[in-house]
Amino acid sequence: MKNDSTTIFLNIVLAALVLLGVVFALMSIARVSKLHTLQAQVQVQGQKAQKGLMLAQQLLQDTVTFNNTARNPELNQILQSAK
Fold it and tell me: Rounded to whole angstroms, how far apart are CA atoms 38 and 28?
């Protein structure tokens, strides 16, 4: 070869770039795996929140129905602020 020091330098640079590529690929795989785990957790929490919201709406509706039969002014005031 004509220029051995240049070839060695370029081979070292190439090896470093390949190593960086492997490191970045592994980091990307780890983050995608974590992302899938977080998405599953968010979905479960979203379902729990939806269930809680439905229960709160059901309770509000039951309270309105009760208030229509019992007519309590204090409860009326609370219901007005909740709507």
Answer: 15
67/58 Cα distance (integer angstroms):
14
Residues 6+ apart with CB under 8 A from 1: 7
Distance CA 25, CA 2 (A): 35
pTM beyond 0.85: the answer is: no
- What pLDDT, in 10s, does the model give residues 19-71? 999 999 999 999 999 999 999 999 999 999 999 999 999 999 999 899 888 88
CB distance 33 to 42 below 8 Å: no
Look up tokens 């229960």; give the residue. Answer: 55
CA dihedral 76, 79, 80, 83 (to 10 degrees): -160
Q: What is the DSSP letter of 72?
A: -
d(CA 80, CA 78): 5
